[in-house]
Amino acid sequence: MSTTIDIPESSKVVVAAPLRPGGWKKGLAIMDFILRLGAIAAALGAAATMGTSDQTLPFFTQFFQFEASYDSFTTFQFFVITMALVGGYLVLSLPFSVVAIIRPHAVGPRLFLIILDTVFLTLATAGAASAAAVVYLAHNGDQDTNWLAICNQFGDFCAQTSAAVVSSFVAVVVLVLVIVMSALAIGKP
Questions:
Q1: What is the pLDDT of residues 120-172, one digit of tens each?
Q2: Torsion angle of the four alpha carbons 130, 134, 139, 140, in this order, in degrees rounded to the nearest 10
Q3: Residue 96 burial (CB count, 10 A)
């Protein structure tokens, strides 16, 4: 004996599609990978721009010249080293980011990346902030310490160092975003 149920045509039955494994965590992992690529470009671009900053001004003769170069300032040397280290770390972190894409619910790789990202964020911030202080002094000078503004004479040098500092802060902001996204992915089931 069979029974039939009459369903009016106006009512629709909605069948839920099965959830894809990973879901929004996989999306965060893909965004993490893309942001890491951007941070690599920003950090290595900052290091390369600062490392190639150089300008020479002749004074009366070509035997006596004024030169401004990144290696004249220990702060800029520190900046180049830190940005190169941050860029190198970010390149080495890409395989772990790929693991997070393949296994979006794995906590181990994300936790490892959060810890190292925080360490290298601190290093990048220290390098960027110290270079920003020197670039500020190069642009404005300081009357109390008799530091003259050199950007009036060394315009190209100052433009390159300023661009490197801006690029380094882009890398810092991207690293902050990466850390926050990884923390969100770990925190919610």
A1: 999 999 999 999 998 898 888 877 877 777 777 777 878 889 999 999 999 99
A2: 100
A3: 17
CA distance linking residue 84 with residue 44, whole number of Å: 6
Tell me how far apart the alpha carbons of residues 31 and 22 are, in angstroms, rounded to a whole number. Answer: 14
Going by C-alpha positions, the residue among 96, 108, 97, 87 that lies closest to residue 38 is 87
Quote the CA–CA distance of 48 and 147 in Å, as a whole number: 27
Contacts of 70 (CB under 8 A, 6+ apart): 50, 51, 52, 53, 54, 76, 77, 79, 80, 161
User: Can you read off the two tokens belonging to residue 83?
Assistant: 């940005």
State pTM to two decimals: 0.79
SS3 15: coil
The per-residue pLDDT for range 75-124, each reduced to its tens digit, is 989 999 999 999 999 999 999 999 988 888 888 889 999 999 999 999 99
Residues near 61 by beta carbon (within 8 Å), at least 6 away in sequence: none
Domains identified in the chain and CATH numbers: 24-187 (1.20.120)
| Residue 18 in tokens | 């099965």
